[in-house]
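Entry:
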Amino acid sequence: MHRFSLARLIALVAPLLLVPSVAPAHGVAAGDKGYLQEMSGVLLVPFANLGAKHMVTGYDHLLFLLGVIFFLYRLKDVALYVTLFAVGHSVTLLAGVLAGVSVNAFIIDAIIGLSVVYKALDNLRAFERWFGRSPSPKVATLVFGLFHGLGLATKILDFQVSPEGLVPNLVAFNVGVELGQLLALSMILIAMSYWRRLPSFGRRAWGANVAIMSAGFVLMGYQLVGYFVTRSFGG
């Protein structure tokens, strides 16, 4: 029987339930929002810094990446999946802003929450039990990477960033995102490497993925509630 401490599950999910202000998965701090709106010209370092900050504090990204690397033991496998996610994230971030493709932020962020749920279910081998086989994890990682990038592109478009120097600034922002991803992933891998050496890993892995899935459902719930509330008040 799989066992997992209920206290651990509550500790992971409760902050999301108790602090609604963090619900928008691609939210940008008010100070950064004003900074983005006031900027003009080529400013590579500030945009790279903002990109890195977004990734390191982007709990939706980190939860998804945690799920992706949870059962990856070889560094080359980690590199492959992280690269697929980065490619997807980069394509829609750059293309979305440059082409002016804007979608409803609540729906995109709900899909990002779904990506967390999906990956946890995949780790739990639920799809194998339900359908006899699992979808390609490589394709899924790439596809969900596209949605993650589109979510951020939508936010940037909402801020109406100056078109002057937009292309190099976006490239710098994306470089910062990838550097932040490497930093966050390094910390996750260090923690996972330590935990995998403990006898408790095999017993707790199932419960940990249930907790990840629960957090994904919480993210989805916040975004869907936000979507329907805004539609109701919007007429």
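The chain has one domain: 56-230.
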